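Example (one chain per record):
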Amino acid sequence: MPIARHAMWQQCATCSHIVSDMAPEIVCPACGGLLDVVHMPSAHSGTTLRRRWESRLRHRTIAGAAAESGVWRYVDVVLPVPLEHVVSHPEGNTPLLFRSRIAEWAEVTNLQIKHEGCNPTGSFKDRGMTVALTQARRIGARGVICASTGNTSSSLASYAAHAGLPAVVLVPSGKVAMGKLAQTLAYGARTFAVDGDFDDCLRLVREASTALGLYVVNSLNPFRIEGQKTIIIELLHQLEWQVPDWIVFPAGNLGNASAFGKALRELYEWGVIDRIPRLAPVQAAGAAPFVASFLDDFRVRHHVTAQTIATAIQIGVPASYERAARAIRETNGRAIAVTDEEILEAKAEIDASGVGCEPASAASIAGVRALQRRGHVRPEDYVVAILTGHMLKDTDILLHPPTEEGTKERAHRPVEIEASVEALTRELALPTLPN
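Predicted structure:
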């Protein structure tokens, strides 16, 4: 089946300045605002698009690694390029799960979970990175650069290695989980630990990218957003286009809030869906500037010094603020904050159900319960929560749990014993079987 081709360009969300889709800038050269990728309206009806995507899923009708990708299946509305140029592992095709234990804990009967930790490098970042690195190769970038709390750097390093492009990574010193740092180093990215937080790293990336001619692939990058849109498209495809009431997800730099809002806007305009669900980004209470802005009706853009055990969302100055605010307004959404203790409690339930996730992911489930208890989500609402990262991304919280007074012991600890059945029997408190 041929790939639909239609024109696209970049456009500033602030001043509407038009930028070529081949330009290396990731922000507007006229005003510094964030750019969006704009697609010409599809020549196909929503029904035709749904059939086309279903055919690609069932029959693998596109070429190469892209045929297996849960991103490039939707190439018509992501980045309509010749698929032989695509940099793909492949990614996507993440599961939609139901666990009664998690639903009961969150006090929402119809709660499903989309686990983006099942992507190749263990997080949702791979969806955006396949598009960003394809674009980097398309425009002839000499190399790529990012700031990261861990997941972006892991994904960038992997996809850059696959694309044969040099990769530079800046991380806040001492504030990145070792599993994520190990991935980044193993894939070969030049990695620099910056004396500062994530926001310092991102500022330095933006300054250095121009001087060094490196292509920035943080969520400021509009092509990253195009890839992350497919979380929503694939989710709705899995639901046979039955739209849930709420989609709840962790929020740090707000790239997913931006991507989800854009995906829903486009799917609705193209007739793929007939209504729009409400979005609910969840921040950690110690890193919740967007929630503060939401409570101020976005009249003030709040900044904070971020502090949370959920390192993947430990960001005090979210870069994708304007896009995310638009997404919340357009979907009648709601931003909410949960405490680190609530995150750890949710993670314990997710892990004990056999699903597992990194701490930042658990914010989504904690957020579902908080939304229900505060009267925003009804117990009978149809809710999908997004888990953004794999359990092994951040094991520090399991191996070295918080020791502050009042925190609960949630993870099982190994117990050292001598090598005897008697010692094992004592610890298990089980009677031995008769001979």
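Caption: DSSP finds 14 helices and 13 strands in the chain.
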